[in-house]
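Re: that chain you flagged

S.,

Sorry for the slow reply, it's been a week of failed gels. I finally had a moment to sit down with the sequence you sent. For the record, here it is as I used it:
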Amino acid sequence: MLQNRKIIHIDMDAFFAAVEQRDFPHYRNKPLIVGGSPYSRGVVSTCNYEARRYGIHSAMPSITAYHLCPSATFVKPRMDAYREASTIIRKIFSHYTEIFEPLSLDEAYLDVSQTTLCQGSATLIAQQIKADIKQQTQLTASAGVSYNKFLAKIASDKDKPNGLYLIKPEQGTLFVENLNVREFHGIGKVTYKKMNTLGITTGKDLKKYSLAVLQQHFGKVAQYYYNICRGIDDRPVTPNRESKSVGVETTFEVDILGKQQVLTHLKPLLKQALTRLEKKQRIAQTLTVKIKYHDFVQITRSRTLSTAILTEAETFLLLEPLLKNTEIEHRKIRLLGVSLSSLNNKSLSMRYQQRDIFDEFFI
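Prediction finished late last night. Pasting the structure tokens below so you have them in one place:
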């Protein structure tokens, strides 16, 4: 029975900002923003709870955050410090179960269904994990406990920061019925607005619609909506989840214009992405270029090969064709990015000796 599963979702509290406050005590009890400078075109990566009181949130332009709270301190991310803390936290997870699925540096799902530690109680395990994290990193985490991933993640948000919330199997259906659909993970702004036009504001409202009707309005994802409003989520916790893509992007302090400028900036980004891919011992077959114009309109252009991309030289040759049918000569650009996807293990690359890099082109 899937309702007999014991799933924990651990979410570190304002992780990047908390590491900064731990390492630099003079940042404590003051609004702190980790991200780009307000004098550049950076964005907020995260912020502490003192800054959130001003309405600041992640992905917000730094200049907007500055206007909301001019007294806030802005610091650049220190990824090495965050990775170091994350490594310690994952070692703590491994003490309680081998079945844990990191989603990012600061959150993960754990399946403790078969764990006998802490009397086999998922709630007691979550409490102990939180205590271990605090002792070993001086950071706080919030935990959600339930019988599936959807409810565990919802629960971890209910009592932040430093919270612990349990949703029992017999509580799941009623809990979701009373939940506003904007709190459902997987329902974004556009879908939320569309649901509102259909009179759907709560899980109970969503539950009134048949699967067939939901499919008419939402397509393939309708099955997910149909299930979660009933507290159903059969997704397993998947250890060692592989990255689906590797990407790099940059936001310019001054807009750029024209193909030559774009290519000049894309090549080093692509080189960085290929280096990251090499470190992961992976190969890719798809290259995607991301362009965000000055008015925040964003487009992507992709190309997939029949075999693996192995060298910088051949990958650079793919860039210029991807820029056709874009407006880079006429519209200023604020952001560029590249990503490599359709990943496989690097050992597979030994199969490929000669290939046509212009195979299977699509935009």
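What I noticed first: The chain has a mean pLDDT of 90.

Talk soon,
D.
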